[in-house]
Structure to design on (616 residues):
């Protein structure tokens, strides 16, 4: 047991500015890259270009043309989101928020960027703020990331002292100030409208959409919320151009650029790597991770966080990009995969996951507030081998009733996606928790309601 | 007279340091309400938790109803509305740490301290809490003690780790 510093693989593999735009500046010792070193490594050159040579609309168009998509899990096209900001020039108080509330289970990519390359995020936000005409930005950071908070605050101080933040940045006439806002727990703060409520000092219940944050965001003003990794892509797109960016991904991928991908669980070499979209999960699992630890067999895997579905070993040939993972039935999510080994019982695993989702429900809408604890109660019974013959049908009813479009936000759909896929692929493990074999199963309460 | 004195001395008063730290936060936002979470954290940093009297005191500085401050204080899991131990242990209970065996770590801590999740040792030394994924998934299971994060925690190594937090 030791206090943690470096991320290992991401720092140590061969990297170049052309192939690893997010991570090529990382130091092998895992220490943060401060302003001097960042500028020696071409840092802020993209910001200089954007502020001196590019019209605001050109920056938006470049990001749109690059095909950059959000890296927080949902994968919405960034340029399209930016394009939703109002054209009306009189709405001149606008905000750029960075979603740094990284709490998705099995996700540790934004932490690395913020701890080791804080200036990359500051530069990304500076360029993005210029494009969006935002005069102020907030980095909404989860409170537990104490090192990231310290490093970001130091980077912001360095940037301010160097005239890279504040008034009349680099003589362009553009003003932008940036603050780190730390949270106080609750997974739901990562939902972008809940994040806005939390930033305003309210309970983090999601807001109704529309209106979207681009129209009515923080303090009622036009607001854009982007993930840390998304914003960190912006400098290289501006610096190297759209053609270069589009050349990064592997053939067959519809998503552009590189992605921080990882694998954890009982694998030989758990870690985080910057890899091109479109590599197969098998390449990640076998070549980078080195497969399972001796004595363990891969039973299932999850491509990107708790809210993504389970897949089987045979699905490892899927390409890692949104539609590539979509073809095998789930979402890529955050792109940091988890290996489930043969020592893990799926009922116990799902009990753990649904306890998390139930605890973290904000309680605003009934299906989520009441449905998730219900699933926990059933899963606990099945785990103790005290389930009833109706339990699996009830769980499948909840998977349906808490699915996309039936709740206020994406929390409950994310909670039931792994549950539905676990029952689909490992139904016998759930059935093993039923006290006696079902005879003439009655329709469950949920099915009757349908 | 005696009663009045008692009430006076029981009244919660923000320290000058707390008050000025909260007032400093107001400058970062368009609206004072936005400083409510940070204000609670400032009080908690000084006192370990947020006593009842802090709620109206913060509400007064921010100019918002006390019920709103309490609403925020009770929503966020890292704001403590009852006293906690000198050291707060936060055990990551993500599915990754579950796969890594965090439940045996929790059991080991519970056995050694005689407390379950959400409880504080009678001597006021430790409080044990679950926490959302700490983002150390390559080093599962992970936990935090106060502001220090540890990875690769094993049930049989927990004792030595706890010993370093007197």
């Amino acid at each position: 047991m030791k206090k943690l510093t470096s991320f290992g693989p991401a720092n140590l593999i061969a990297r170049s500015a052309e192939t690893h735009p997010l991570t090529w500046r990382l130091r092998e010792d895992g220490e943060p890259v401060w302003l001097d070193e960042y500028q020696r490594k071409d840092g802020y050159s993209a910001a200089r270009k954007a502020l001196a040579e590019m019209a605001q609309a050109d920056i938006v168009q470049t990001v749109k043309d690059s095909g950059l998509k959000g890296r927080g899990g949902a994968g919405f096209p960034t340029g399209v989101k930016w394009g939703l900001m109002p054209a009306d020039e009189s709405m001149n108080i606008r905000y750029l928020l960075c979603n740094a509330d990284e709490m998705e289970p099995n996700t540790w990519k934004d932490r690395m960027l913020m701890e080791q390359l804080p200036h990359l995020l500051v530069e990304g936000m500076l360029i993005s703020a210029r494009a969006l005409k935002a005069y102020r930005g907030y980095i909404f950071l989860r409170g537990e990331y104490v090192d990231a908070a310290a490093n970001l605050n130091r980077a912001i101080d360095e940037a301010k002292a160097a005239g890279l933040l504040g008034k009349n940045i680099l003589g362009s006439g553009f003003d932008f100030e940036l603050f780190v806002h730390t949270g106080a727990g609750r997974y739901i703060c990562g939902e972008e409208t809940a994040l806005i409520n939390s930033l305003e000092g309210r309970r983090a219940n999601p807001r109704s959409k529309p209106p979207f944050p681009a129209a009515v965001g923080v303090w009622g003003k036009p607001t854009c919320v982007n993930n840390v990794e998304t914003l960190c892509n912006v400098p290289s797109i501006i610096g190297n151009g759209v053609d270069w960016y589009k050349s990064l991904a592997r053939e067959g991928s519809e998503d552009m650029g590189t992605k921080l991908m990882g694998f954890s669980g009982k694998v030989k070499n758990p870690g985080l790597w910057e890899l091109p979209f479109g590599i197969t999960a098998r390449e990640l699992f076998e070549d980078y991770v080195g497969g399972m630890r001796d004595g363990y067999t891969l039973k299932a895997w999850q491509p990107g966080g708790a809210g993504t579905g389970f897949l089987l070993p045979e699905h490892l040939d899927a390409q890692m990009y949104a539609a590539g993972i979509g073809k095998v039935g789930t979402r890529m999510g955050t792109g940091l995969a988890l290996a489930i080994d043969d020592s893990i019982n799926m009922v116990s695993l799902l009990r753990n996951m649904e306890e998390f989702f139930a605890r973290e429900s904000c309680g605003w809408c009934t299906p989520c507030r009441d449905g998730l604890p219900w699933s926990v109660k059933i899963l606990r019974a099945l785990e103790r081998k005290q389930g009833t013959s109706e339990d699996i049908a009830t769980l499948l009813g909840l998977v349906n009733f808490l699915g996309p479009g039936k709740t206020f936000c994406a929390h409950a759909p994310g909670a039931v996606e792994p549950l539905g896929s676990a029952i689909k692929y490992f139904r016998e493990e759930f059935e093993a928790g039923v006290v006696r074999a079902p005879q003439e199963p009655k329709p469950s309460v949920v099915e009757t309601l349908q | 007279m005696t009663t009045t004195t008692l009430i006076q001395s029981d009244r919660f008063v923000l320290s000058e340091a707390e008050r000025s730290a909260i007032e400093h936060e107001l400058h970062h936002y368009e609206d004072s309400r936005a400083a409510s979470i940070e204000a609670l954290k400032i009080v908690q940093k000084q006192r370990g938790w947020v006593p009842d009297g802090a709620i109206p005191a913060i509400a007064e500085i921010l100019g918002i109803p006390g019920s709103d401050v309490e609403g925020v204080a009770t929503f966020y899991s890292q704001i403590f509305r009852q006293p906690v131990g000198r050291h707060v242990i936060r055990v990551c209970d993500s599915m990754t740490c579950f796969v890594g065996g965090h439940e045996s770590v929790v059991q080991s801590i519970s056995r050694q301290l005689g407390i379950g999740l959400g409880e504080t040792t009678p001597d006021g030394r430790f409080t044990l809490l679950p926490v959302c994924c700490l983002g150390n998934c390559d080093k599962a299971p992970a936990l935090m003690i106060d502001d220090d994060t540890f990875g690769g925690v094993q049930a049989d190594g927990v004792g030595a780790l706890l010993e370093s937090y007197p």
